[in-house]
Structures are given as structure tokens and as C-alpha cells.
Amino acid sequence: MAARTPEQKLARLLLALALFLLAIIIAAGFLPALIWAVVIAVAIGPLHARAERRWPPGRHNLLLPLLFTAGVGLVIVVPFIFAAFQAAREAHDLAVWLATIKRDGLPAPAWVNDLPIGRDEVAAWWQAKLGTPAAATAFLHELNVGLVARSRALGSSALHRLVIFGFTLLTLFFLLRDRDSLAAQIRKAGERMFGPSGERIAGQMLLSVRGTIDGLVLVGLGEGAVLTIAYLVLGVPHPLLLGTLTGVAAIIPFGAPLLFCFGALLLVGLGQVGAAVALVCFGFLVVFLADHFLRPLLIGGTTRLPFLWVLIGILGGVETLGLLGLFVGPATMAALMLLWREFIAGAEGEPTVEASPDAVPPSQ
Fold it and tell me: How far apart are CA 184 and CA 149, in angstroms?
């Protein structure tokens, strides 16, 4: 077989680039699902490998991937079902409360008179918007019009995300089923393109994804569990629903304060100002310990990234890619940091040897 000429190699490269770009355009709508599937597969990879060693697959490797995919689906879906169930239980009470406001109006609560500043302005606004049945009816009608428009957009977005979620689970199943074959192909392609550094970069990115999941998901759910106990103790309305939402929001750094501050506002509305202050102080203490000690330890220790770069990767990833950026951002920073360390250390990652004063200079 004759060797390819430089013109043929160039044409082959251009064809590959054109096909790659065309494939990206065709699959653009499903790229988030593909990336999510890869992230989840990397996260549960060690557990799946342990299960394979315990129960070796037979001729058809279908049972374990199917069970793991179903388990991932349940873990993600069950909290949302629980939140929807709790919201449905409260819908009747909310409807009765709104009907009462429309019939009788809603007087300003006692805490308005205790405000240190802006007391008169808040009281006047409250009286104009909610103080009388007519004002309350008009105000709630305005809110209802905005909520209807937003609910339509939310429904369309939810349907799109449901399709993406289903495709993510389907992709995850095939990734788990063909895990060994895909890993061998990726390892061989990385070695051909990048040499020995390719496998190190891939390994570092895998570790960074797992460390990020431990640092974000597990710590976030732990924050939610601790704050749920605080909601129960301090008497926050709907503590289980609020605690579930707090656990989800806490996955994103600085997301939990939005929820426990909302819980504090509910306590203020009930006249429990002391409990509200205690909740805010305790909540910020939990967030401080989690974000400044646990998360840097779990993420930075695995990715070998300073906390500043971990934070930039997380927040910048969220701003650029949404929730998916929580995991892609730190992985990207970890790979870049590995390349930088290898660059300053020497060729192919071999550390340079610093000359000592007693070293014998090489012969010329």
C-alpha cells in the first residue's frame, strides 16, 4: 500500500474536521445530555466496576447497566416527586388563604411596626396593595397574569428538560454497557494525539469530576439535611419541602443562603424574629464551614487545584454552561493546571533537576 502524499493527508484532515463540525451541529441539541451522561458515568464508575467484580457479566452485559441506570433515574426523580407531592398538599391551604385575602384583605403584620427604618413606607405600600379586599384582589390578579405567562414558558422548558433527561439515561446505559471498550479507544486515541500526556490528562479530568461531585453534591445534600433539622427545630413552615429545595440549591456554592433566608422571612412573617435571626446565623455558619473547609478539601485535594481556581472553575462554569458547568469547569481547570505543571517541569512531565553548588558541570 502506497504511503499517503502530503496533499492526501491534508485532505483527510480537512474532511475529518468538516465531518466533526457537521456532527457537532447535528447533535448540538443533545450535547448537554451526552456530557451529563459522561459526568454521571465517571461518578458512578468505581461503584459499577466493584459490582462487576462481584457479579461478573455473562454473555450479554445488560443487567448491571440497566440496574445502575434505573438507580440513577430514581435518585434524580424521587426528590422532585417528593417536592411536587409536598407542594400539592399545600396547594389547598394556599388556595383557602388567597380566597380569605380576597374576601377580607390582609392587614399589615405586627413586625412592620418594629422596622427600624422605612416603617411608614412599608405600611403605606401594604395598605395600598393588600390592606383592603379590592386592593388585594387587584394585586393578586396582576400576580396571577404574570404567573400564567411564566408557567407556560416553564412548562415548555420542563418538557424539553424531560426529553434531555430521558436521552441522558439512555446514553448512560450504553456508556456503562460498553465502558471497557470505550475506555480502551479513548486511551489509544489520546496516546496517538498527545503521547504519554494524554492518559495523564484524561486521568486528572476523571479524578476532578469525581472530586467535584463529592465536594458539591454530597456536601450540598449534607447542608440540606443539617438545615432541614434547623427548620424543624425553629418552626419554619413546610420544613421538609424547604429542606429538600435547600439541599438542591446547596449543590451550587452560595445557593443555600437564598433558601434559608427565605425561611427566615417566613419566620419574620409569623412574628418570630429571634428564630429568624438564629436561622440566618446558623445557616451562614453551616455554609462557611462547608464552602471554606469541606469543599476545598474534597475538590482541591483530588484535582490538585488551589481553592481560587476551584471557585473560578465552578462559578465560571455555571455562568457559561449552567448546572453542567459545575463539573465541566473544575475538570477543565484541572487539565489546564496539569498541562501547565508539565510545561514548567520539563518535557513529558519529567521534573527538571536543579543544579546544586557541588554538582560537577558537564564536559563540553
Answer: 50
**Residue 107 shares a structural domain with residue 216:** no
Largest pairwise CA distance in the chain: 99
Q: Is the pTM of this model over 0.85?
A: no
Residue 360 is assigned to a structural domain of this protein = no
C-alpha cell at 152: 407556560
User: What's the domain range around 101?
Assistant: 29-177
User: What is d(CA 199, CA 191) in angstroms, rounded to the nearest whole number?
Assistant: 7
Instruction: Say how many domains are in the chain.
Output: 2
Question: How many C-beta atoms lie closer than 10 Å to residue 72's C-beta?
Answer: 20
254 exposure class (CB count in 10 Å sphere: 0-12, 13-18, 19+): exposed
**Which parts of the chain sit beneath pLDDT 50?**
347-364
Residues 206 and 338 in one domain: yes
Residues 259, 214 within the same domain: yes
pLDDT digits (tens, 9 = 90+) for 217-247: 888 888 889 999 999 999 888 888 888 888 8
Query: Could you tell me the three cell numbers for 351?
Result: 521534573
